[in-house]
Structure formats: structure tokens, C-alpha cells
Write a structure and sequence with these properties.
The chain is elongated and about 85 Å long. Strand 13, helix 10 and strand 14 form a beta-alpha-beta unit. Helix content is 41%, strand content 22%. The protein is of the alpha/beta class. Strands 1, 2, 3, 4, 5, 6, 7, 8 and 9 form a nine-stranded mixed beta sheet that branches. A six-stranded mixed beta sheet has the order 14-13-10-11-12-15, with helices on both faces. The structure holds adenosine-5'-triphosphate and magnesium ion. Adenosine-5'-triphosphate (ATP) binds next to helix 6, strand 11 and helix 13.
Length: 390
């Protein structure tokens, strides 16, 4: 018996050109994500993509796990692909689905007959398979209205597929259909979740991290790596650009009013991110900010950072509560990494009394004391690039 994986596309509302680019990007993403697991074929037909391994060495468990995190997939299931022969189907079904059948107390059978030349009609297939299952598992009953398990027999062109219930996919849009954006990633809880949310809408992620050694330790850069590796399980490979930020922070600390420190620092982050993002062909900046979470995340502060950005600044968490964000960060498995206790560059020089509603001209005046162009170009020159993969 050969085992395959059947994958159903998401976002059914898509039409025309969008639909075909959605499907071809999704198929490419699936190929790329499963590549290291062995040889296999990916076949597209209507709204189903079939993954067909060449031999037994293909790790189906791992493949299933990876598929569960690929955006653009509504549902998926493993299936047995057998000869289109009723005897084989009747013999295989109770064996192949034995685990699920043991755990269910009711079931029903559905037949889909794409090959109209198959000698039995759908109701006859259901009847015969139902009987074979009842014989093999005396504890189970038929319930056509609300069964614990639905067994599906699909008679296709080349083979018959046998499978149980579909598992829920990651949803969203295939990464690559939504453009590219630069994610500002700290070591905190929020920014990895923000990146995940944009990847879910099909956006390719580049990441920008500001590090201030020796005030921030190599362990906090490690943390960013580990966080991105978790996000990459959903988004695919992420290019990380680490910006040396110490000189800028020291200059702000020495030359600007303390209560404006955080805001001015954020404006420099934004200016540098714009330069890096544009070089990479990104169309937006993404941050993990949410209104009111901390003093630097007021609308006034956001307006002030936006005013130095040419690219739109997307803040997918803007209206979420911290606990809602935490739920997502646990779901994508970044929470435990985010709470590791290491300094972020933002916490290093945090002022005691940050200004909540600083005036624009005040900030601009304070920034005049900095040699902006030189500071920015030195930071950009010192950027370190790496690829973070899943
Ligand atoms: P997070 O949990 O994402 O760190 P936070 O609640 O700690 O967020 P801030 O520290 O105010 O909030 O940061 C707000 C946003 O600014 C972050 O979500 C991130 O997008 C960006 N940011 C903060 N620090 C850095 C950094 N060192 N490098 C890159 N981006 C950063
Ligand atoms: Mg932070």
C-alpha cells in the first residue's frame, strides 16, 4: 500500500488569475518545505494538491507536521492509495484506519466517484465498506448524521484513495502572494507574533534586529535567531539583518533630553529599517506595537515614527490585548523563547520618565544635535546578514 497526502487549498473566494497564482505559489512552497524529506511528486488538480512520495523512506509524520504550518492550506489528510479494486479497498480500509476506528464509537462512509467507469455506484461502495468495517470492529455503530469518524473512499483516475477526517490547515495565503516586508524583531513576545500574522497573509518576511553590544549580550541575538527559526516554520526562510546600534544609542544618550530618548531611538530604527527594506525590495515595515502597551506605544509616538518612514508601517497587533498576543505566541511556540531573560537594546537606556505626548518640533530640534547621516551610514555599513531557516 502506498501512502499519500491530500491537501485542500484555502481562501476559496479567490478567482481568475489570483487563484492560479495562489495555487502555483502554494505548490512551490509545499515542494520547498518538504524537499529535505526525500523524493516525492506534487500533483495539482482542481482545488486539491497531492503529495506522492516515491518510496517508504519519505518521513510522513514530519511531512504532515510541516504541512500543518504552510499558509494557504485549508485542510489536509493522509490517505492510502490502492488499486481500484473493490476487494483491495475492502481489505485495506479497516486496517489502514484501524487507529481512528478504535477511538471512534460511530462512523459513516462517503464515496466520491470521479472515475465514472468504476463498476460500483457510490451508495454501493458505501454499503460494502461499511459492512467490512462493522465486521472488523464490532464495537462501532453507523451514524450518518453526526459520526465520530467519516471514512472517505475516492475513486480517481489512477487509484482509489482511502482516508478519514480532514485535519485543519494553517489557513491564510501562500507566502509569496502578498509581497515582501521588513519585520522589526526584538527579543520580546510581540514582534514574532506580528511577523507570523503578516506571513499568514502571504507576505515574505525579511527581519531587522538592532543590537547594542556590549550593552546587549550575544545571548539576546541568539534569542532572535531562535524566535525567527520558529516563525520560519510557517513563513519559510527569513533573511535576518542585524544592525549595530550602540553608537547611535550612545549619541542619543549623550546629546538628547533623557525623556525623549526612546522616541528618538525608534525614529532612528525606522530610518535605518527603511534603507534596508528598500534595498531588499520590501514594500512595508512591520512592528509588534499595540496601542497603549508601553509609554512608547501611544498614537503620538506612532505618528512620530511614521513621519520618518517612507514605507507604510504595518502593526498587525495594534488593537490586541497582551493576553491575546500571548495566546498566539504560545500557539506558534515562541513564548518560551521570548520570556528568556536577556536585555533588549530598548531596555538598556530606558528613561525613568518617558514623555507620552512629545511635540514634533521638540524632537526634531533634539535630533539636530546628532550627526544623523554619518551615524546612519555607519550603522548600515555594519549590518550583518544571515538566512534563518526552519
Ligand atoms: P516586543 O515584544 O516585540 O519586543 P515590546 O512590547 O517589548 O515588543 P517595544 O520594546 O516597545 O515593545 O518594541 C515595540 C516594537 O519595536 C517591537 O515589537 C519591534 O517591532 C520593534 N523593536 C523593538 N526593539 C527592537 C530591536 N532591538 N530590534 C528591532 N526591532 C525592535
Ligand atoms: Mg521589546
Amino acid at each position: 500500500m502506498k501512502e499519500i497526502i491530500l491537501i485542500k487549498n484555502g481562501e476559496l473566494a479567490l478567482k481568475g488569475l489570483n487563484r492560479s497564482s495562489f495555487e502555483s505559489t502554494l505548490a512551490k512552497n509545499i515542494k520547498r518545505r518538504l524537499q529535505s524529506l526525500g523524493k516525492f511528486k506534487v500533483i495539482r488538480s482542481q482545488s486539491t494538491i497531492t503529495v506522492e512520495p516515491f518510496d517508504e523512506s519519505f518521513d510522513m509524520e514530519e511531512a504532515e507536521d510541516r504541512i500543518s504550518r504552510i499558509f494557504g492550506i485549508a485542510g489536509y489528510e493522509r490517505a492510502a492509495a490502492v488499486e481500484k479494486d473493490m476487494e483491495v479497498i475492502l481489505k485495506t480500509t479497516p486496517v489502514y484506519l484501524s487507529e481512528a476506528l478504535k477511538n471512534a464509537s460511530t462512523f459513516k462512509v462517503e464515496a466520491k466517484r470521479a472515475d465514472k467507469t468504476f463498476p460500483l455506484k457510490s451508495p454501493e461502495i458505501c454499503c460494502d465498506v461499511g459492512e467490512a468495517v462493522l465486521n472488523a470492529f464490532p464495537h462501532i455503530r453507523v451514524d450518518v448524521k453526526n459520526p465520530d469518524l467519516t471514512i472517505v473512499i475516492e475513486i480517481r483516475e489512477n487509484a482509489a484513495y482511502i482516508h478519514g477526517d480532514q485535519k485543519k490547515g494553517a489557513g491564510g495565503m501562500p507566502v509569496g502572494t502578498g509581497g515582501k516586508a521588513a519585520l522589526l524583531i526584538s527579543g520580546g513576545i510581540d514582534s514574532p507574533v506580528a511577523g507570523w500574522m503578516m506571513a499568514k497573509r502571504g507576505v515574505v518576511l525579511n527581519a531587522v534586529h538592532f543590537a547594542s553590544p556590549p550593552f546587549t549580550s550575544p545571548m539576546s541575538e541568539m534569542k532572535v535567531h531562535d524566535l525567527l527559526a520558529k516563525v520560519a516554520k510557517y513563513s519559510g526562510t527569513i533573511k535576518l539583518m542585524t544592525v549595530p546600534f550602540t553608537e547611535i544609542q550612545e549619541n542619543i544618550r549623550d546629546k538628547c533630553p533623557e525623556e525623549l530618548f526612546t522616541l528618538i531611538m525608534r525614529r532612528y530604527m525606522m530610518r535605518i529599517s527603511n534603507i534596508l527594506a528598500e534595498k531588499e525590495g520590501c514594500e512595508a515595515i512591520v512592528t509588534g506595537e499595540s496601542v497603549g502597551q508601553v509609554a512608547s506605544q501611544t498614537l503620538t509616538a506612532m505618528m512620530s515614527t511614521d513621519s520618518v518612514s517612507r514605507l507604510p508601517v504595518l502593526r498587525p497587533l495594534v488593537g490586541m490585548d497582551k493576553n491575546e498576543i500571548v495566546v498566539l505566541s504560545r500557539k506558534i511556540d515562541t513564548f518560551d523563547i521570548s520570556i528568556r531573560p536577556f536585555e533588549d537594546c530598548c531596555t538598556v537606556f530606558t528613561p525613568k520618565h518617558p514623555r507620552l505626548h512629545p511635540k514634533a518640533d521638540e524632537i526634531e530640534k533634539a535630533e539636530l544635535s546628532l550627526d544623523s547621516d554619518a551615524l546612519i551610514s555607519r550603522a548600515v555599513e555594519g549590518v550583518k546578514q544571515e538566512l534563518i531557516t526552519f
